[in-house]
Amino acid sequence: MAELLLELLSEEIPARMQARAAEDLKRLLGAEIAPLLAGREPRVSHGPRRLALVAEVEPAVETPGREERGPRVGAPEQAIEGFLRKHGATRAALRQEGAFWVLSRPGERIEARALVARAVPAVLRAFPWPKSMRWGRGGGFAWVRPLKRILCLLDGAVVPFDLRQGDDDAHGLRSGDETEGHRIMAPGAFAVRSAAEYVEGLRARKVIVEAEERARIIREGVARLAAAEGFEVVPDEGLLAEVAGLVEWPVPLLGRIDDAFMDLPPEVLRTTMRVNQRYFALRTPEGRAAPRFALVANVAARDGGAAIVAGNERVLRARLADARFFWDQDRKERLESRLPKLDGVVFHAGLGSLGERVRRLERLARIIALHVGADPALAARAARLAKADLASGMVGEFPELQGVMGRYYALHDGEDARVAEAIAAHYRPVGPNDAVPDEPVAIAVALADKLDQLVGFFAIGEKPTGSGDPFALRRAALGVIRIVRENGLRLPLFPILEAARRGIERSLEEARRERERAAGRERAVIVVPNPDHEILREVRPETVEVYDFLTERLRVQLRAEGMRHDVVSAVLGVVRDDDLNRLLRRADAVRRFLESEDGANLLVAYRRAANILRIEERKDGHAYDTGYERHLLKAPEEEALAEALETAARRVELDLEAEDFERAMDNLAALRAPVDAFFDRVTVNDPAPELRRNRLRLLARLRAVMDAVADFSRIEG
């Protein structure tokens, strides 16, 4: 085996691009040199200035010979010549096999050195950076930042290549055996001969190659410094990964926050430090903001970092002074006074302004409140104020604080605490690890926000596709599902989705009329139903489409949780239950039934009956979906099955109406013995045509009784 070492040294790579770039390098170069890898996975590392790859490769490999089928015998001469040119072969290499010419291509020996020398330049020139730049006179090569060196070794020897394309390409950067250490603490190039020497040589020159090790040093170092002061670090894995991508030699340090700023909301302190300076926030054991912050330097200073800390404290002081200004100015106005500004902010060209959306949320939250045990007036008030902080100075500076600042401003204005908490919580959950709101008013507003978003964008045709979801509708749907599931809500989705749809129609119609009034050309009024009071009489196809999208997201979530999503599909195949928790209870009962011995055996019998019916219905050209005739039940086993089916059908119907899904499954399980006896002793395809038809109808009745609970044909396995 031979060791391949590749390093690409450049100016600073944005931290957010490093991990993806390392994976792209492994994927793209791995595909090019796959014959040499023999299934082994290359290892990659990344840092602020470098991407590196190490792989164990075969020095040379022999590819197996293969045959290529060519044109038909008697094909035009041009077709044969074209086939030979494509494969670089001569006519003598062709042989006739049946009606075709066949070209036998012998295997070839691939030298690792030659393949790597061809592959690396091709990969680098086509590298998929999200953003790249060109530099120098030629400008023929693009990279994320100017590329300085290429280290490429195979068993300690340089693999020679360069990046030239034509004689006048200014980027003729050549591969070599040198890299560089820390830009400040160990400048200059040095040569290496192996991956181990590369890692240790860089460590000796103040560069830690592995991002995971840099992150560990930062995590442990910051935690140690915080603990020494009696504090703990506010967890932030995203910031940790980013900072690990900014430094090659991490040196954690601790700074002080001026007491004058400690009365700012802790979220403001954390966001200011994180967004502007990439500092880590600390807190007391009780959870209050600590008057300290952690930073990570990229050098080990001779004074222990005192000057670095002092400089960062000055910068933070200025940043927090800006935050103080916004905090003080915003509280001079009531939150509600900012609402008129939202009328001038476009939410989406097809869905009107933010002000129009707020009025929709106010109506929808009032409706949802009735179903989740919330005070409708408080829910409407919270929805009315939920977006008002978007017009504040603080949220304008730090969009990450939307909702959070609305809560503080609402409390300052003397709003009900439940209204304030709903304003803060209505965006949640924003990710899979984020908690869902659990207070009824907050639940009502959060659901209104997400359902209006879903229904609105579906209404204007802005639906997610396989390649994109620009309006985060999948996240909104999963948010609805998590809120409903984790709070155990019995929420009728169809009436609420219809109310959301009609609210959007009403909102857009009102906006159109207002525009026409302003332009002096108002037309006749079109009355749009009031979604607050109209009784739901039908569910429009547009509403069903949103419901289907929600249930599809539910299946995705169940699959991610390792649960049987096929059971949910089976239940949905029978009824579009708009109560998701009832749907899941029914699916769970079906799942437990199928895991029982009776359920597993009855599923086998169901499939046997379904297969027989499918074959015979195709053969006879019609479906056997009419009732069987009792006087044609001749065998005791078919009489017993018919009696069991009618008993089970009556009981299952009552059980489903009572939502006693476990008892419904027990009544289905009672069919196992008569079904087994029927298949053991009765011939379905009896020579007598009338008996055959009647027995097929009896099997169709079995299928129908079971399908009343779930579409068992959708069960996998």
TrEMBL record:
PANTHER family xrefs: GLYCINE--TRNA LIGASE, CHLOROPLASTIC_MITOCHONDRIAL 2, GLYCYL-TRNA SYNTHETASE
Coiled-coil segments, which residues?
A: none
Catalyzed reactions: tRNA(Gly) + glycine + ATP = glycyl-tRNA(Gly) + AMP + diphosphate
Where does it reside? Cytoplasm
Name recorded for this polypeptide: Glycine--tRNA ligase beta subunit
Pfam families on file = DALR_1, tRNA_synt_2f
Keywords attached to this Swiss-Prot or TrEMBL record, sorted alphabetically, are:
Aminoacyl-tRNA synthetase, ATP-binding, Cytoplasm, Ligase, Nucleotide-binding, Protein biosynthesis
The record's similarity note reads: Belongs to the class-II aminoacyl-tRNA synthetase family.
Q: Residue ranges of the DALR anticodon binding domain?
A: 603-707
Gene name of the record? glyS
Q: How does this polypeptide assemble, per the annotation?
A: Tetramer of two alpha and two beta subunits.
One Gene Ontology molecular-function label: glycine-tRNA ligase activity
**Which EC number(s) does UniProt give?**
6.1.1.14
InterPro entries listed in its UniProt record:
DALR_anticod-bd, Gly-tRNA-synth_bsu, Gly-tRNA-synth_heterodimer
Catalytic class of the enzyme = ligase
